[in-house]
Design goal:
alpha+beta, about 450 residues, about 20% strand, globular, 6-stranded mixed beta sheet, 10-stranded mixed beta sheet
């Protein structure tokens, strides 16, 4: 069987070899950081025999909260790119090097206006790589230190040591933490380190604070330094002005640093961040300044979301249908094997229909493209890119339409079931990159 030349060319262009590079050696880099990230400066990270100061990005797993409030897993891209899944430790490489030293590294604002991430504490003897239950669900990225940082944006936020539930509309101890505005996204600026290629490698068990286990290659096509690298999480499809996903992520961020309960009855040794245990983002900003739920007459009762606490709503997740995935902790690694195995079964089912003589297979039937994808996809070897997954999602949906035209008469039911499952699997990833808003959670710095 042969595909028309124009179709073959289109598919190879979409799914085949990388395009000619636009990377430029010796150029600056900005990293756009959006989502519920905690930044920690590790000055004792070992690279070989050297101590190198690195920036650790941490984001908690979301499996303790309802799926509708879970943000999407992080993407690593410059237009195209990859997902950082599953949960675990990864090292961002500059020209293939994990954690290159930046003698001028700093989280200061430098020539930019001041940024205001929320300062949070860590317990004594805390280590970011300890395998606690909360840390085992989290995603970590090891980055070289930037030369300076600036805001993606800022938003007014108040905090309280206890929930305001039941006290609405009387405020219950909510106040600013140092400043009215906090960073909802950061830009990391690199001027001393000027890579031409960017990638990330997966690290093994982090029993020590070093790069020795960060060796598992991600894919054979690192990204070009085109000026900006985005490490971004998308918000759930929820336009609630109370920002429940921001409130939920905030609690999980604090518990990632200290898993001592934030809810009453409080233990004698309270969580190190108990004084800012609850967050209340402003619902509006008008000419008079920020408007918080406790101030407004609209009776949104946003603070009521916090109690009962999200941790008590974990039972809602039991209502998920089998196979549904949401958070970066729950989503599987998108490896070629996860796509190729079902494609083999789909190919067999198509062949069964053809061999039985029940249908005259035509070259323009979209589902005949599917077996061809196996050879095209193998070019990337390990992991598909964001753009490849978008193409596959469309092809699978086209295939389902074509197969359903024959369903009533003689299509193999097993083929429909398998293809439907594959569409759902691929769509998880496709939906996290297009048509979704950025997760504008407050950025934290841990000390």
């Amino acid at each position: 069987m042969k595909l028309p030349l124009f179709l073959s060319v289109c598919l190879v262009a979409l799914l085949g070899s990388p395009l000619q590079s636009n990377a430029q050696t010796g150029k600056n880099l900005d990293i756009r950081l959006v989502g519920p990230w905690i930044l920690f400066t590790d000055s004792n990270f070992k690279v070989g025999n050297d101590n190198v100061t690195v920036l650790i990005l941490m984001s908690p797993g979301m499996d303790n909260i309802p799926e509708e409030d879970q943000h999407a897993p992080p993407t690593f891209g410059n237009g195209d790119g990859d997902w950082v899944t599953p949960a675990g430790v990864y090292c961002v490489t500059f020209d293939g090097v994990c954690a290159p030293k930046n003698a001028n590294g700093s989280l200061n604002s430098g020539p930019y206006p001041n940024s205001y991430p929320l300062a949070v504490k860590v317990p004594g003897n805390w280590k970011w790589f300890n395998p606690t239950p909360e840390q085992a669900k989290a995603t970590y990225l090891i980055l070289p230190m930037p030369d300076s940082v600036s805001n993606e944006g800022e938003w007014p936020v108040e905090f309280a040591p206890a929930s305001d539930y039941g006290n609405y509309p009387t405020p219950h101890g909510y106040s600013y933490s140092g400043t009215p505005l906090h960073s909802i996204g950061l830009h990391l600026h690199y001027t001393s380190l000027t890579p031409s290629k960017l990638d990330f490698v997966q690290c093994g068990s982090m029993t020590n604070d070093n790069s020795s286990s960060c060796t598992k290659a991600h894919n054979p096509y690192p990204l070009d330094n085109t000026g900006t690298l985005s490490i971004v999480m998308k918000a759930p499809d929820n336009d609630d002005p109370c920002d429940p996903h921001v409130r939920a992520a905030y609690r999980e961020m604090l518990l990632l640093l200290d898993d001592t309960s934030l809810d009453p009855p409080l233990p004698a040794n309270q969580n190190v961040n108990q004084q800012i245990a609850f967050i209340d983002p402003a619902v509006d900003v008008n000419q008079s300044g920020p408007v918080f739920d406790g101030d407004t007459t609209t009776e949104l009762d946003c603070r009521g979301i916090d109690d009962p606490p999200y941790t008590s709503l974990v039972g809602l997740n039991e209502e998920k249908k089998s196979g549904e995935q949401g958070s970066s902790e729950a989503m599987p690694r998108m490896e070629m094997a996860n796509i190729l195995a079902p494609l083999n079964e789909i190919s067999k089912a198509v062949n069964r229909i053809s061999e039985s003589g029940r249908e005259s297979l035509r070259i323009h039937d979209p589902y005949l493209i599917l077996p061809i994808q196996r050879s095209l996809l193998s070019d990337r070897n390990l992991y598909p890119s964001i753009s490849q997954m978008a193409v596959l999602s469309r092809l699978f949906r086209q295939s389902m339409k074509a197969i359903r035209k024959q369903e009533v008469r003689h299509t193999d039911p097993a083929l429909l079931s398998l293809l439907k499952s594959e569409i759902q699997f691929v769509s998880i990833y496709d939906q996290t990159t297009k048509g979704a808003k950025d997760c504008l959670a407050v950025i934290m710095t841990a000390n």
